[in-house]
Amino acid sequence: MIDRLATLERLLRVRQGRTRRGSVLLMVLIFSTVLFLIIFSSIRLTLFNLRMVDRSHSYKQAMAVTEAGFEYAIHEINVGNVSGNNWTDTQTVNNSSGDPFG
To answer: What is the Cα gyration radius of the chain?
Structure first.
């Protein structure tokens, strides 16, 4: 009878140890999943912001070139140089990295 009780106590201790290890594993998996989702969302948000900044930069560059073209046209009109060839020739405008627009 005493042997049976001792064996039963040992089995209960082993089961409790396995249950604790299983619950710790489950908690680590849940924590890892939540951490992964937070990191993934942060990276997506950062990439979205990067695209928005790039678009804004391109828009501002285009507006600056457009404004410069209008200013040049107004200057030519004020000077009276509106004859033929000046308005048919094209000039290339480069961006900050040296690449031509258009």
So the answer is: 36
